[in-house]
Predict the 3D structure of the following.
Amino acid sequence: MNTPDERRAPVAVSLTSAAEAANDHHHNHGGEGGPPRRSKVAATLAVLACAACCALPVLIGAGLLTGAGAALAEQTLLAVAGLLLAGAGGMWWLHRRKSARAAQPGVGTCGSSVCGCGGC
């Protein structure tokens, strides 16, 4: 029969491994292949800029914005949203590229072979 200490040990190990897995997920910025947090923030700001652009007719109807002001705001918001989306995509691509390069065995390490990095 198991003693109380033997029954508790597997539970403590599984809780520790679950906490480590949660910590690894937090540091991994979205998991395997997912976008990093900065990319998510940029995409969210782009969506907010699009939503603000869609709200312009309501602001004109309420008398808070003139037609000329709305035209200027529309062009500005569309440009900002486009730049933010391009930046978010670029950050995600760079993150995936770095992750893939780091996952390759032997990349960035100097072994017995000549790698041409000058530091071997």
